[in-house]
């Protein structure tokens, strides 16, 4: 590839790339995102390469390894084009059949297709699988068409068209205006209007300005930003470049956490390629726009995602938030005007410039436009990354896309917004995902974590878990956050251990309000959310723990006991063999008994007892029945 010095060069190259790709030529796309790596896409890729060579198809079939396709639960995923046949949970030994049957003979390998869990009906085409059918993958969709290390692949899907439009057809003011008219709100959590923020930085006095990509993503369980950065780094960089042009910045930073090695390596490879071909550096595409990007690896502290502490961390200082104002838009990195946006926010920019503010406004709700990517995890059949138009309901996401709750269990709540988000009960499942609606329901959008919980989750324990995370991650600079979270955590821990007091709920409420009011940054200000939302929607669970020493979900270890029903026990010995604490007494034809003092409540006996017997049960809030006297333990 020659250096690209003008729009004409760019378009000539794009035409050449597209001409080289005969549209009917078959291709195999193998997801190689982090989750598929974990499920073994590496050996599958090696098998594909080997098999294509073996069958003499090396130059007749395209093989591409891409970023995350979203349906991580079912990885490794391979998609065969042009038909769009989607094979799930592919193993190396499946590869010869895929090549000879599907590629050569045009036949499907039935066992690798998606099977509808209700009807067992097989679905071959990716687009028809319910998980994908109900999504609108405007941002994530490109992932499966691009090898993240290939600039050609990105150019083939229209890459850098938006940048050239911005540089040659629009003034910086017009770009800001387009983003403002699109009503794009930041995807990093607070939902602040992106165009307005750009305008602040653009108008701030100063020659040198910075633009920054926030790829810290510290929320446990969330991996949207990581998947975009791993799968389509060019789109994020293109968005960043357009923003830099609009704002008047000539230097950019990508702040990415150290634990994301694949994201860092794909990003660095993309940047190196862009520099090599002249799409970064001086006079980009022959315009007057100069721009460079550096990558900064963060050490992986949740607080470093907060923008003022991210700036400190970039400066090489400990990541502690600063009071605002002054806002980063005026005094940010090295006291210069700085605009920070989330990865997904930047990735939306090329779409807005290419398709226009009207198109973007046609998707979503009154107050939240475009799509949003969620990481759907927890007690749901189809876990993975899901992109929906704003306004989709939680019910649609959990049931139509997520396929409902596994094991016939009952839905209990969905937690959105990361560790400082809130829990939404079943009665509010028709809430639309929209910045304002989620807040109204007592939760928040956050960066897009969505954790589904079934009847086995104790919501007091869940609040305790999140407060534990936040207590560890608070930078400790201000007392209301440091102490407020710690005290709330102490009370919640007591409650889950059956040591709650009658006035604990009042004290929790008071602590929550003070912490929210008096903390310096949004970590402390939002930390009470898990407590307040569970108190609001699931108060009776707190009361049962405090008053009856009972955990209704049968989850809090200190409040449950395992018991063997003497009527049901068949003395098979399975539980006794599994019990790691040697707490079960039994023998041939002797009804087994659990010694409650030795029992650690690990639940191994419950799992071990055959379903047909179902003799082990969990009890909470009631005394464990006395064991049978020795002489009555004999059966048969
Ligand atoms: C404790 C804390 C952690 C945060 N972590 C992130 C993060 O990992 N990624 C992110 O984009 N924003 C994060 N934010 C929000 C950022 O401070 C900032 O609002 C965001 O990067 C702005 O980008 P946006 O306007 O595109 O959303 C965090 C905020 C707080 C208070
Ligand atoms: S609110 Fe918490 S995390 Fe934020 S500055 Fe204060 S102590 Fe640090
Ligand atoms: S596994 Fe169940 S049936 Fe078998 S001995 Fe234990 S309690 Fe009894
Ligand atoms: S990593 Fe393969 S589908 Fe998500």
TrEMBL record:
One of its GO terms (molecular function) is 4 iron, 4 sulfur cluster binding. Gene3D superfamilies: 3.10.20.600, 3.30.70.20, 6.10.250.1450, Glutaredoxin, NADH-ubiquinone oxidoreductase 51kDa subunit, NADH-ubiquinone oxidoreductase 51kDa subunit, iron-sulphur binding domain. Residues 560-589, 590-621 form the 4Fe-4S ferredoxin-type domain. Keywords: 4Fe-4S, Iron, Iron-sulfur, Metal-binding. Belongs to the complex I 51 kDa subunit family. This is Tungsten-dependent benzoyl-CoA reductase-related protein bamH. It comes from Geothermobacter ehrlichii.
């Amino acid at each position: 590839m020659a250096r690209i010095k003008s729009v004409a060069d760019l378009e000539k190259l794009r035409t050449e790339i597209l001409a080289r790709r005969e549209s009917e030529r078959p291709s195999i796309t193998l997801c190689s995102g982090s989750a598929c790596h974990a499920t073994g896409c590496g050996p599958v890729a090696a098998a594909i390469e080997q098999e294509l060579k073996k069958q003499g198809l090396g130059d007749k079939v395209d093989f591409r390894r891409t970023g995350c396709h979203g349906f991580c639960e079912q990885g490794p995923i391979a998609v065969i084009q042009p038909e769009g046949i989607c094979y799930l949970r592919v193993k190396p030994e499946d590869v010869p059949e895929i090549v000879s049957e599907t590629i050569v003979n045009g036949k499907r390998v039935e066992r690798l297709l998606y099977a509808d869990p209700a009807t067992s009906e097989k679905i071959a085409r990716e687009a028809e699988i319910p998980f994908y059918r109900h999504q609108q993958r405007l941002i994530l969709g490109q992932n499966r068409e691009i090898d993240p290390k290939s600039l050609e692949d990105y150019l083939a899907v229209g890459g850098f068209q938006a940048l050239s439009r911005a540089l040659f057809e629009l003034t910086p003011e017009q770009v800001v205006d387009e983003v403002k008219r699109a009503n794009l709100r930041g995807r990093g959590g607070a939902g602040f209007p992106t165009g307005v923020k750009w305008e602040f930085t653009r108008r701030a006095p100063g020659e040198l300005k910075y633009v920054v990509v926030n790829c810290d993503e510290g929320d446990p369980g969330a991996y949207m930003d990581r998947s975009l950065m791993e799968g389509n780094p060019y789109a994020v960089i293109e968005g960043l470049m357009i923003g830099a042009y609009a704002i008047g910045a000539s230097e950019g930073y990508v702040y990415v956490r150290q634990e994301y090695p694949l994201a860092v390596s794909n990003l660095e490879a993309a940047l190196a390629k862009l520099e090599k071909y002249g799409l970064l550096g001086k006079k980009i595409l022959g315009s007057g726009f100069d721009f460079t990007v550096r990558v900064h690896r963060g050490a992986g502290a949740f607080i470093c995602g907060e923008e003022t502490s991210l700036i400190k961390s970039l400066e090489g200082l400990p990541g502690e938030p600063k009071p605002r104002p002054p806002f980063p838009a005026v005094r940010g990195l090295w006291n210069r005007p700085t605009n920070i946006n989330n990865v997904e926010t930047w990735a939306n920019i090329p779409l807005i410039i290419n398709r226009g503010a009207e198109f973007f406004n046609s998707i979503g709700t009154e107050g939240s436009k475009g799509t949003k990517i969620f990481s759907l995890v927890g007690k749901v059949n189809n876990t993975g990354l899901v992109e929906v138009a704003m306004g989709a309901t939680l019910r649609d996401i959990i049931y139509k896309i997520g396929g409902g709750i596994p094991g016939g269990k009952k839905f209990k709540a969905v937690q959105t917004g990361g560790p400082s988000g809130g829990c939404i009960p079943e009665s509010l499942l028709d809430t639309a995902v929209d910045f304002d609606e989620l807040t109204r329901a007592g939760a928040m959008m956050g960066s897009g974590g969505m954790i589904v919980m079934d009847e086995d989750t104790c919501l007091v324990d869940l609040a305790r878990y999140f407060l534990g995370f936040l207590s560890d991650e608070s930078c400790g600079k201000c007392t209301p956050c440091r102490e407020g979270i710690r005290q709330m955590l102490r009370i919640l821990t007591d409650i889950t251990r059956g040591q709650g007091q009658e006035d604990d709920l009042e004290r929790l409420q008071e602590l929550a309000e003070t912490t929210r009011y008096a903390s310096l940054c949004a970590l402390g200000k939002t930390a009470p959310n898990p407590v307040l939302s569970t108190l609001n929607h699931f108060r009776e669970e707190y009361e049962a723990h405090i008053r009856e020493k009972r955990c209704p979900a049968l989850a809090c270890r200190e409040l449950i006991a395992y018991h063997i029903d003497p009527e049901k026990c068949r003395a098979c010995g399975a539980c006794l063999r599994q019990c790691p604490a040697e707490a079960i007494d039994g023998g041939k034809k002797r009804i087994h008994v659990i010694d409650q003092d030795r029992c650690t409540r690990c639940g191994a006996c419950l799992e071990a007892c055959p379903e047909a017997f179902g003799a082990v049960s969990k009890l909470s809030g009631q005394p464990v029945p006395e064991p049978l006297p020795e002489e009555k333990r004999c059966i048969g």
